[in-house]
Amino acid sequence: MQIRTQRLFLSTVFALLSTVLLLCQSCTEAGKNGTNKTVFRYNQPEALSSLDPAFARNQANIWATTQLYNGLVELDQELKIGPGIAKSWEVSEDGRTYTFILRDDVYFHDHEVFKGGKGRKVTAQDVAYSFKRIIDPATASTGAWIFNDKVLSDKNGAISDTAFLAVNDSTFKIYLNEPFIAFLEILTMPYAFIVPQEAVAKYGKDFRANPVGTGPFVFKQWDEGNAIIMHKNPNYWKKDENGVQLPYLDAVQISFITDRKSEFLTFMQGKLDFLSGVREGSRDLILNNDGTVQDDFKGKFTVRKEPYLNTEYIGFQLDPTNLKDPNPAVQDKRVRQALNYAINKKEMVAYFRNNIGIPGHSGMVPPSLPSFSEEKVPGYSYNPKKAKELLTAAGYTLQKPLKMRLSTVAEHKELAEYMQKKWAEIGVQVEIDINQGPAHQETVDNGRAPFFMKSWLGDYPDAENYLALFYSKNFSPAGPNKTHFVNAEFDKLYEQAKLERDVKKRWELYQAMDRIVVEEVPVIVLYYDEVLRLTQNNIEGLEPNPMNMLKLERVRKTD
Q1: Which residue in 18, 86, 28, 445 sits closest to 265, CA to CA?
Q2: Is 337:380 a contact under the CB 8 Å cutoff?
Q3: Which of 21, 69, 470, 503 is the most exposed place for a label (fewest CB within 10 A)?
Q4: Structural element, H or E, at residue 343
């Protein structure tokens, strides 16, 4: 009844929004912004804290810095590695030395820090400086982990001065302690973008608001909390297939509307060109229950549902050390399996997410990655009969019910309540503990949540990044292993996979690891996320990808 009432309310909202849209069509600028300049406008509801790539830890910072900087290598729309500032590279036979040859036509943005205000050419010394800066404790970068424990270090773990070597202006080398097969993927991350020493020296910590890069757009203005303006880089080094210099757009404007309903209304009014990650209320407005676009919205703008490298899961804290009230039940694999079998993941994704997402019927690795195989890594589908059998075998009955407490955040309250109901159907009593995001994160990271909802958004497109969550040397809070899962066979396979250069053999190792995760159930995989992206009909060239990157250098905006 509550859901029906909500849908009636949403229908009323839709009628109001349609009226607003009609009223605003006459005053919409269609991208001209009062001049002949094309301005791409997107909103950033989450906080944007820095335009310094050393702090590109969240989507807000990543999307903005991607417009301003480049790295040695970059991902294409299919997540394949291609050249960036480096036009070519070689990896030594032992997998420990990476040699990059830089382009000779990449220049930093024009800026007063350079002689005559003209941006100078990027050299291998700039790359060495940028990478050393990331690991310098004085920088306090959240991205130091991309190099720590990977690049050449001494017996005490201190990174060697020769780990990053500028052989000459155009040749750059990186030396690793041991082969790390996903290292090139790591170098595509914004943390590895190249910055000029002159600008960092001038601004210090204020470099966050005075960025100077090599990217398609040049920083113009940041009115914090209101807007960021970037202008076209007239000296950008990239051209399209026809020899036309990129970018096509004249400017980018980022707004900071925090209320999701206001954000959606602004898009409906034509005042935003792009919207990503549409939330519950607006999602119900746009999509039918089966995930198809409602007739009222067809043709008004472009709607795309795309795979997203994000796995939503429930974790069990297997290390009781920091738990206030340890629950011995979570140590029993049969209990963890029973809780998994009790959830109808297909129904959950359809009913609460309008079929945005893929039910988690495999392991931790999402379908967007090439090593994924539900056939080779079968997970848990809905089987309440099996769930009850496992609970009984573990010693839990109606007379002696299993009691649990699930920690989550307000955003996932409806999903948690759905699972609470499904667990109740097999005799499990679950209380829901709602926390603010930062408090929830801190509690989980420090091992004080016995049973918790979390997600893992891939840092780079390789299954190793997901399986690292279960490697015993990666315990949180320093590492991503939030469940403190320990399995000797898993660790052996993980260490073997890091060195395996044969792609198909490495995938087999990944699948073997994921099968262990499925069997031992340190996590319940709920669903593999998808992202709903809306664009105005006059936007061309904004191609989606599983990393949900926002690359605007090839985007066009027509009348």
Answers
A1: 18
A2: yes
A3: 503
A4: none
